[in-house]
Amino acid sequence: MSTTRPYSPGDRGPEPGGASGASEGGVAAAGASAGGAATAPAVSSGGRQVRRLSFVGESGVVPLARDFTRQALYAWGWLPAASGDQRAAAEDVLLVVSELVTNACLHAEGPDQLEITCDNKVIRVEVSDRGAGQPAPRTPHRAGRPGGHGMFIVERLCLDWGVVRAPGVVGKKVWAELGAPA
């Protein structure tokens, strides 16, 4: 389901103060990936864990985002998967990250940041960019034609997705939520 509401049902909203690299409790965390991008490793507060990756000055952002996400999935226990269903859930998360970051590259002047939030039931992926466009699945979807499948894939794999825009701020945040593996 495509939506433009800022947060999906039951979402807790933005973190207090909008602090980057902080848990809900305000404990800052920082690090660096092998590529030099600024990252925030997993921090936990009340079962909610957050990781952030800045793309500023980076190249090869899609593989960088997938590697970053894969590391988070290992840290959070989604990988290695104990069953085929758990492996499929982790692969779905990696595919959604790839699609959202690719769309930011193709349609929105490139991504600024990837944020992944995980609790025991849902993983939320957010990609911020400087673009003015509104992502939407192509209608009608033509499965046999190359290209144009990204948001259709996101829509099919996710519990929900949407776009957040802040008044007076250039760009947007495209978010998607996937269920945790059983």
Question: Any overview of this molecule?
Answer:
The chain has 182 residues and is α+β, with helices and mostly antiparallel strands. It is built from 3 helices and 8 strands; from the N terminus they run E-E-E-E-H-H-E-E-H-E-E. It is globular, with a radius of gyration of 16 Å.
List the SSEs and their pairings.
Layout lengths: L1 E2 L27 E2 L5 E8 L2 E7 L6 H15 L8 H24 L3 E8 L3 E8 L20 H8 L2 E5 L7 E8 L3
Parallel strand pairs: 1-7
Antiparallel strand pairs: 2-3, 3-4, 4-5, 5-6, 6-8, 7-8
Helix pairs in contact: 1-2, 2-3
N- to C-terminal distance:
22 Å
Mean pLDDT equals: 79
Specify the overall morphology. globular
Helix content: 25-40%
Order of helices and strands: EEEEHHEEHEE
Low-confidence segments, given as residue ranges, are 1-36
Structural class: alpha+beta
User: What is the total tally of β strands?
Assistant: 8
| Tally of separate helices | 3
